[in-house]
What we know:
Layout (H helix, E strand, L loop, with lengths): L4 E3 L10 E3 L13 E8 L5 E3 L5 E3 L5 E6 L2 E2 L4 E4 L9 E6 L3 E8 L10 E9 L8 H4 L10 H4 L2 E7 L6 H14 L4 E5 L7 H8 L4 E4 L13 H15 L6 E5 L7 H7 L2 H4 L2 E7 L3 H13 L6 E3 L6 H8 L9 H4 L2 H7 L10
Parallel strand pairs: 1-6, 6-10, 12-15, 12-16, 13-14, 13-15, 16-17
Antiparallel strand pairs: 2-11, 3-6, 3-11, 4-5, 7-8, 8-10, 9-10, 9-11
Amino acid sequence: METRIKRTYICKEVNAHSIDRDIPADYLPVAGDVAVFEVLHIGKHRNVQGESKRNMAIVPGDKIMAAFGTRYATEQFEGYLPATVDIDQELHILGAGGTVGVLASMHYKFKDIGPTTLRFAGFVKDYYGNIVNTKNLKKKQQLKFSGAAASATKVILSLGSSMDSGKTTSAAYLVHGLKKAGYKVAYIKLTGTVYTKDADLASDLGADIVSDFGDFGFPSTYMCDESELLDLYESVLSRVLIKNPDYVIMEIADGLYERETKMLLTSKTFKQTIEAVIFSAGDSLAAINGVNTLHSWGLYPVALSGLFTTSPLLIREVKENTTVPVYDIDQLATATVAGSLFSRKLLQAIN
């Protein structure tokens, strides 16, 4: 019986194709190159997200269609593109949305589980014999950065001290509060590894429209350069403007020191497009030091939230050491708080 190919989310727009097991001589895979892989061993990823967003269980022997990419996730995996592609080479699922590469490191909690391992089974090619690339499929829809999209709305950044600090939840509940206050609100996620969970949460809590980097074929944004990120920013933001949002809540993945996050937050070009910042942290020290770091980069949060707000003692410590207002997610979800947060712009002039 022929094995069905399970198409991952990043490959949702890969339609007509053929599978070619021949590897071009000296070929170096690039982010977005689409291939079929055979599942060898189940580790951390027991499921992949399919084209319909449904999580599909996988077992050894399954064939999945996914894209080569990278990943930076401090609570999960670090991974890169393979230097070569070989039939016998061990590859790894880096992200459930369909990002495949070579694992470089992983969080200690996965040491006894390890990654789900794969074997290359063939490149996906178009009618002309070219390797299909998810980023190239969306290239015509990508815009060059101009700042025009940001000038048509108010972009609110949701940042965090690290992965899993609460920034996604803060962003989604802020969306909910702004909707209660009578505003049109969009949510976008600019950086990360493709998986729709974060955008789906914002949609569930009332966002009029959501989008992320995956809509433009990026399996991951890790190792993108600044100009590519700025073009992606213009493209994703323009995509949600069809709803004429009063506010766009934009999440940037991982912590302040992550490569792309720091790159953007220290870019004068990028910062000039931002209306305000909310910052989430896991504990009081991260909250205070995060505020200080942002201040050093010319960014001034209008609110603090995140996991630390689940502890009254941590809230007290933060309030004793900063004047930035602290709100838990229930407060962010109220019309009173959300509607008043951005009544004045607290991003200081960038010299």
